[in-house]
Specification:
Mean pLDDT: 96
Number of helices: 11
Largest sheet: 7 strands, mixed
CATH topology of the largest domain: Aspartate Aminotransferase, domain 2
Low-confidence stretches: none
Structural class: alpha/beta
CATH architecture of the largest domain: 3-Layer(aba) Sandwich
Bound molecules: pyridoxal-5'-phosphate
Helix content: 25-40%
Number of strands: 12
Shape: globular
CATH class of the largest domain: Alpha Beta
CATH superfamily of the largest domain: Type I PLP-dependent aspartate aminotransferase-like (Major domain)
Number of domains: 2
Length: 365
């Protein structure tokens, strides 16, 4: 709706009136490679374990769930410690309905001025807006990497309460080294801010996680999700790893009983099977590198990616035309609004082959 289309009796907040609801097109096509989901559904053993955990909580659904999701947070701490050799306990972990809810809680608790480096995850500026924070756009270099000197200068100038970096970055796939993140954290620390490291795609990356920096830099908070590597997007489980003081701040802004007993049980069961679930991660990485080679063989340029998607360019026609022709062939990828570029999520080998075949036809026109 445009501002003039909202009914006059609805006292909507002024800054929301020109906005449209967020959302990638959910077109029901045979090959959906547009929202960076994991293409592999859960293995039978995992679904059996989830069903059995859920069954155990069913008889208690008359009661509210554990408000603080203690068992789940302990299981998440254990997972992170296994992955990154850290020693976190549940007091350093918060869990919510997807990492989007974690991001919203950070804005609710801290708010104020926020800075991010675009193009990046479009929900960061959007949540800033809906929570009444002021968003500042920092930029990336033309190759989508981050100019650390310019980024730290921006931080010192704007003095944001929240600075966002996404690594690997969505939609570019580019990742930051721990040395680069440390430089940014120092600048953020010097202005008394918090550095939010959004690691939604961390498991697909070879670069170590920024959770290993939290002990040294308490101003770093790391946002993770089970939506991608864990094939768990439908369950809605995101989490935060941070200094316990930040977790206490999350307790101030969370809604009571925000995470249902069903979600907590499902997530605990999935985490107990994490090795099983993460087996697909290496397959996806290999497929990513294979699809990148195929795109290059088609004469296209691909941004080096550490995630489960690729941003590519080099078309002789507008990217939106190519996107539409792929849709007509039953393949949904993402036009993320960067002129000349399209983004494709890595699917199963069959889906990837269908995508490459359709794209080959389209760019030959
Ligand atoms: C960088 C980034 N952060 C966070 C999210 C949100 O994930 P979820 O709310 O499913 O945990 C996404 C989803 O695509 C993402 O790309």
């Amino acid at each position: 709706m445009t501002p003039s289309q909202w009914p006059s009796w609805l006292p909507l907040r002024e800054q929301l009136a020109p906005m449209s609801p967020y959302g990638a097109p959910q077109i029901d096509l045979p090959v959906r490679l547009n929202t960076n989901e994991n293409p592999y559904s859960l293995h039978n053993e995992v679904t059996a374990s989830i069903a059995s955990e859920i069954e155990k909580v069913l008889t208690d659904l008359n009661r509210y769930p554990d408000r603080d999701a203690v068992e789940l947070r302990s299981a998440l701490a254990q997972y992170i410690n296994q992955q990154s050799g850290t020693h976190f306990e549940k007091d350093s972990i918060w869990a919510a309905n997807g990492s989007n809810e974690i991001l919203q809680s950070l804005f609710l608790a801290i708010g104020g001025d926020a800075l991010g480096f675009l193009p990046s995850y479009s929900m960061h500026p959007l949540i800033a807006k809906i929570t009444n924070s002021t968003w500042h756009d920092g930029q990336r270099k033309p190759d989508f990497t981050l100019d650390i000197e310019s980024a730290t200068n921006h931080i010192k100038e704007i003095k944001p309460a929240l600075t966002f970096i996404t690594t690997p970055n969505n939609p570019t796939g580019t990742a930051l080294t721990l040395a680069e993140i440390s430089d940014i954290a120092r600048a953020v620390g010097s202005v008394g801010g918090i550095l939010v490291v959004d690691e939604a795609y961390a498991e697909f990356s070879e670069v170590p996680s920024a959770v290993t920096l939290i002990e040294k830099f308490p101003q770093i908070v790391v946002v993770r999700t089970m939506s991608k590597a864990f094939s768990f997007a439908g369950a809605r489980v995101g989490y935060l790893i941070a200094h316990p003081a930040v977790i206490n701040a999350m307790l101030l802004v969370r809604l009571p009983y925000h995470l249902s007993a069903l979600t907590q049980a499902a997530a605990r069961a999935a985490l107990s099977q994490s090795e099983h679930l993460l087996k697909n991660v290496s397959t996806i990485r290999q497929s990513r590198d294979e699809v990148a080679r195929q795109l290059v063989n088609l004469g296209l340029s691909v941004v080096p990616s550490q995630a489960n998607f690729l941003l590519f360019t080099g078309f002789k026609r507008p990217a939106s035309e190519i996107w539409r022709e792929l849709v007509d062939q039953g393949i949904l990828i993402r036009d993320i609004g960067i002129s000349g570029y399209l983004r494709v999520t890595i699917g199963t080998p069959t889906e990837n082959a269908q995508f490459i075949t359709a794209l080959t036809q389209s760019i030959a026109k």
